[in-house]
């Protein structure tokens, strides 16, 4: 989307400066043969209708930027391969809608499939069956546990947005308390949101596992620990790249927010885990 003039002579570049800045960064990175990223493809603007018509007419000065599927894929690749360099360029004001849309594209496909499956199973089920007693049933009625589990599943799209803003606020407050935040809270939210990407897909798969499992306590604990360490690493790199602070400080800041997704995942898992250290059911089944 190269700068050009409208028919009345007014430059489009003045009105579209933010988009053109992103486009310029994107085109430069597309030409970068070293693979060092300083912006994320999901944030690049799309070619306008006028640009597409110009290309069709043979105007080679107008460059096409890739489509949505390519942007999502290569944004994931960039975040995984270059966790520090991906945050070297932060365009402000931050478009939170773009970040949330990207997170939804990573998190919600498996959630959608699982929701449909749960709905179909509910329609095809014939009567109530005995419920195997779980550790959580010492505190919650089994029928209430089932209702809470279903409610948590249906709340995933809303919970994703709440998690995004909560992580951003926690990270920014921690930055302020450890020497100040050079960039805005919007930039911090962007960093904490994109840093979720490497663990969102595993979390979606664990969600499916919890509905079809349940897994053993040891297996879940190992997976939750790995995901927590992974988010701590990517969040630290994201904060360091965004705010231009030392990695040591960034990892210190990331300690508290990095635990939030894992705590939420563990709370969800406690509803379905069959075994917990030191717990023995008094009877095996509950008949509603």
State the total count of DSSP E strands: 2
Q: What's the Cα radius of gyration?
A: 23 Å
Q: Which structural class is indicated by helix and strand composition?
A: mainly alpha
Which overall shape is indicated by the principal axes computed on the Cα atoms? globular
Helicity level, as a percent range?
A: 55-70%
Keywords summarizing the entry:
single chain; 288 residues; mainly alpha; two-stranded antiparallel sheet
Provide structural commentary.
By secondary structure, the chain is mainly alpha-helical. 62% of the residues lie in helices and 1% in strands. It has 11 helices and 2 strands; from the N terminus they run αααααβααααααβ. Strands 1-2 form a two-stranded antiparallel sheet. α9 (197-212) packs antiparallel against α10. The longest helix is centred in the middle third of the chain and has 29 residues, at 96-124.
């Amino acid at each position: 989307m190269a700068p050009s003039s409208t028919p009345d002579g007014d430059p489009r570049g003045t009105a579209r400066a933010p988009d053109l800045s992103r486009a310029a960064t994107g085109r430069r990175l597309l030409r970068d043969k070293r693979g060092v990223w300083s912006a994320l493809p999901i944030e690049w603007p799309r070619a306008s209708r006028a640009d597409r018509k110009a290309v069709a007419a043979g105007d080679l000065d107008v460059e096409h930027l890739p489509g949505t599927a390519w942007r999502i894929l290569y944004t994931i690749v960039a975040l995984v391969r270059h966790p520090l360099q991906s945050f070297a360029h932060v365009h402000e004001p931050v478009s939170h809608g773009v970040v949330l849309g990207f997170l939804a594209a990573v998190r919600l496909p498996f959630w959608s499939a699982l929701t449909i499956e749960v709905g179909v199973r509910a329609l095809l089920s014939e009567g109530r069956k005995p419920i195997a007693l779980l550790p959580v049933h010492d505190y919650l009625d089994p029928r209430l546990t089932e209702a809470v589990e279903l409610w948590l599943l249906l709340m995933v799209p809303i919970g994703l947005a709440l998690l995004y803003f909560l992580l951003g606020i926690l990270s920014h407050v921690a930055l302020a308390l450890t020497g100040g935040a050079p960039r805005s809270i919007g930039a911090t939210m962007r960093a904490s949101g994109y840093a979720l990407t490497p663990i969102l897909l595993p979390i979606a798969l664990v969600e499916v596992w919890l509905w079809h499992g349940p897994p053993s306590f040891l297996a879940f604990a190992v997976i939750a620990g790995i995901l927590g360490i992974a988010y701590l690493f990517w969040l630290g790199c994201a904060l360091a790249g965004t705010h231009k602070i030392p990695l040591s400080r960034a990892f210190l800041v990331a300690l508290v927010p990095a635990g939030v997704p894992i705590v939420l995942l563990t709370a969800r898992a406690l509803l379905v885990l069959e075994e917990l250290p030191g717990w023995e059911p008094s009877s095996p089944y509950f008949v509603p």
